[in-house]
């Protein structure tokens, strides 16, 4: 059976601020993020399986990414844990997500990759992610590029 890649698109609205940065993203503002998740592997070949012929049920992929990423980051304010007023904002609003990294698109995609990989079925591996921060800017993460990093995770 051939190796197949399947991709699902997700969208979420998020706000962030980049501490000590010298551009527009320094101050709190929002983005309409679009995340493409591509999974690779061989489809199940088992007539007795309910997932026969599928690499991964799109519904399961949707559920996994929604549960571990979208539900957490959608309409959230994403801040570094040591950002000014971070703790006060956390107390005042329910939708503040504190992370231990600068919440750039690059760092978010690495965090998303680590998270999604933990929840994929055995026959599927994460091939890559693409994360749009604006209509014309996106970052990509590919498993192929990060093989050496894997041994440290
Ligand atoms: Zn920004």
Give a summary of the structure in a few sentences.
The chain has 153 residues and is of the alpha/beta class. It has four helices and six strands, in the order ββαβαβαββα. The chain has a single domain (4-122, 130-147), classed as 6-pyruvoyl tetrahydropterin synthase/QueD (Tetrahydropterin Synthase, Chain A).
How would you describe this structure to a colleague?
The chain has 153 residues and is of the alpha/beta class. It has one domain: 2-Layer Sandwich (Tetrahydropterin Synthase, Chain A), CATH 3.30.479. Helices cover 26% and strands 34% of the residues. The chain is built from four helices and six strands. It has helices at 58-73, 86-92, 105-117, 147-150; strands spanning 4-16, 29-41, 76-80, 96-99, 124-134, 137-142. The chain has a six-stranded mixed sheet with strand order 4-3-1-2-5-6, sandwiched between helices. β3, α2 (86-92) and β4 form a beta-alpha-beta unit. The radius of gyration is 17 Å and the shape is elongated. The model has no long low-confidence stretch (mean pLDDT 94). Residues 16, 25, 29, 31 line the site of zinc ion.
N-to-C series of helices and strands: EEHEHEHEEH
Distinct small molecules bound, one entry per kind: zinc ion
Please state roughly what percent of the residues sit in beta strands, choosing from under 5%, 5-15%, 15-25%, 25-35%, 35-45% or over 45%.
25-35%
Number of strands: 6
Q: Within the CATH hierarchy, at the fold level, what is the topology?
A: Tetrahydropterin Synthase, Chain A
Q: Can you identify the CATH superfamily?
A: 6-pyruvoyl tetrahydropterin synthase/QueD
Please give the largest β-sheet.
6 strands, mixed
Separation of the first and last Cα atoms? 30 Å
Please name the CATH architecture.
Answer: 2-Layer Sandwich
């Amino acid at each position: 059976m051939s190796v197949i890649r399947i991709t699902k698109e997700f969208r979420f609205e998020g706000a962030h601020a980049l501490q000590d940065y010298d551009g527009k993203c320094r101050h709190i503002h929002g983005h309409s993020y679009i995340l493409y998740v591509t999974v690779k592997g061989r489809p199940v070949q088992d007539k007795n399986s309910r997932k026969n012929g599928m690499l991964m049920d799109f519904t399961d992929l949707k559920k996994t990414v929604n549960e571990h990423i979208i539900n957490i980051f959608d309409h959230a304010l994403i801040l570094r844990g040591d950002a000014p007023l971070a703790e006060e904002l956390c107390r005042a609003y329910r939708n503040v997500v504190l992370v231990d990294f600068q919440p750039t698109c690059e760092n978010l995609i690495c965090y998303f990759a680590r998270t999604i990989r933990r929840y994929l079925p055995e026959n599927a591996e994460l091939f890559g992610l693409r994360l749009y921060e604006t209509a014309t800017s996106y970052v990509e993460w590919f498993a192929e590029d990060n093989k050496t990093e894997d041994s440290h995770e």
